Amino acid sequence: MPVLPANAFDFLSHSPEQTRRLGMRLGAFLQAGDVVCLQGDLGAGKTTFVQGLAAGWGSLDAVSSPTFILVNLYRRADGGQLFHFDTYRVESTLEAEELDLDAMFSAGPLVIEWPERMAGVLPAEQLWIKLEHVDSDRRKLTFLPSGKRYENLLGDFRQSSFGTD
User: Fold this and answer.
1) Of 5, 23, 27, 110, which one's alpha carbon is 20 to 30 angstroms from that of 57?
2) Where in the chain are the domains?
3) 3 state DSSP class of 21
4) How many CB atoms lie within 10 A of CB 144?
């Protein structure tokens, strides 16, 4: 098993509720322009994690999978916007480029499911989270920051969630 980079870590969630709570902790740190990439097979817990993420960010809206509509927009009381983008049905990088991602990047945090389908248009800096199915309830989440902003965000998140840097 490969060793994770020093600024990365993994976590074993024992239930959907724990996955949601972990997302809530991370969501509290998100700012406009942040990009969170969620990689994992169908049923790995991506949407469950986003439910918590949006709640922690302060969303007034219920979270659902945007698989058939590509992008869901969640709002909070101060007018902030969070974009939840599902690229499962995006066929190419060219198609992804047509979706005006720059506008989403500047307007609010952007959470992307299936980011590997559009790797060519992602910013160089982002937080990548890989979710893996362990069994019916448990999921392994691996957090990999790219760039100083995401190293700091992950450090704050770890301190808040686990009391460690």
Assistant:
1) 5
2) 31-162
3) helix
4) 19
Confidence tier at 68 by pLDDT (50, 70, 90): low
Distance CA 146, CA 144 (A): 7
Determine contact, residues 29/1, Cβ cutoff 8 Å.
no
From the DSSP assignment, how many helices (H) and strands (E) are in the chain?
5, 7
Residue scoring higher pLDDT (5 or 61): 61
Torsion of CA 9, 105, 32, 129, to 10 degrees: -10
Q: Identify the CATH class of 31-162.
A: alpha beta
DSSP string covering 28-55, please? Answer: TT--TT-EEEEE--TTSSHHHHHHHHHH
Residue 116 gets which letter from DSSP? G
- Count of all residues that appear for the chain in the document: 165
pTM value is 0.90
Output the average pLDDT for the chain. Answer: 88
